[in-house]
C-alpha cells in the first residue's frame, strides 16, 4: 500500500511537469516563503513577475488545496477572505521537489 506522503509527492511532480508558464512553481515557492496567504496577496506577488489573472491564481490555489492536499484553508468570518496555509508536514517535501534539478526558475519577491 502506498503512503499518503508518496501519493502527494507523485501528484506534486505531475502538477509541476505540465507547468509550461512557471506559475505553478512560483505559487509553491511563495507558499514555502510566506507559509500563508490569500488569493489577492498571491495574485499581487505573481502579477509583479507574470501576466496572470486573479481567476487563474484562484484556480491553481483551489487545485493545490483540493487535489494535492498540501494546503489548509481558514476563514475567520464570512466577511473575511479565505487564508490558505501550507501544511507543516509537507514543507520539506515541497522544498525538495521545487528545488529539484528539473526546476527552471526560482520565484523571488
Lay out the secondary structure.
Layout: H1 4-17, H2 23-34, E1 36-37, H3 39-47, H4 54-68, E2 71-74, E3 83-86, H5 91-98
Antiparallel strand pairs: 1-3, 2-3
Describe the structure.
The chain is mainly alpha-helical and 109 residues long. It has a single domain (4-98), classed as Winged helix-like DNA-binding domain superfamily/Winged helix DNA-binding domain (Arc Repressor Mutant, subunit A, Orthogonal Bundle). 53% of the residues lie in helices and 9% in strands. The chain has 5 helices and 3 strands, in the order ααβααββα. Strands 1-3-2 form a 3-stranded antiparallel β-sheet. A hairpin with an 8-residue loop joins β2 (71-74) and β3. α1 runs parallel beside α5 and α3 (39-47) packs across α4.
Index terms:
mainly alpha; three-stranded antiparallel β-sheet; 5 helices; Arc Repressor Mutant, subunit A; globular; 109 residues; disordered C terminus; single chain
Q: In what range is the share of β-strand residues?
A: 5-15%
| Percentage of residues assigned to helices | 40-55%
Shape: globular
Succession of helices and strands: HHEHHEEH
Within CATH, the superfamily carries the name Winged helix-like DNA-binding domain superfamily/Winged helix DNA-binding domain
Structural class determined from secondary elements: mainly alpha
Overall structural domain count: 1
* Rg on CA atoms, Å: 14 Å
Number of helices: 5
Mean pLDDT: 89
CATH class: Mainly Alpha
Q: What's the count of strands?
A: 3
Q: Tell me the major beta sheet.
A: 3 strands, antiparallel
What spatial order of strands do you see in the largest sheet?
A: 1-3-2
Could you say what the CATH architecture is? Orthogonal Bundle
Distance between the termini: 40 Å
CATH topology: Arc Repressor Mutant, subunit A
Amino acid at each position: 500500500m502506498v503512503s499518503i506522503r508518496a501519493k502527494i509527492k507523485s501528484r506534486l511532480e505531475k502538477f509541476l511537469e505540465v507547468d509550461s508558464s512557471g506559475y505553478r512553481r512560483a505559487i509553491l515557492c511563495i507558499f514555502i516563503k510566506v507559509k500563508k496567504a490569500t488569493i489577492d496577496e498571491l495574485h499581487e506577488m505573481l502579477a509583479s513577475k507574470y501576466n496572470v489573472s486573479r481567476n487563474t491564481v484562484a484556480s491553481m490555489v483551489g487545485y493545490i488545496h483540493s487535489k494535492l492536499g498540501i494546503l489548509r484553508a481558514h476563514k475567520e468570518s464570512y466577511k473575511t477572505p479565505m487564508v490558505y496555509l501550507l501544511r507543516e508536514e509537507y514543507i520539506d517535501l515541497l522544498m525538495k521537489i521545487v528545488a529539484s534539478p528539473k526546476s527552471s526558475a526560482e520565484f523571488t519577491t
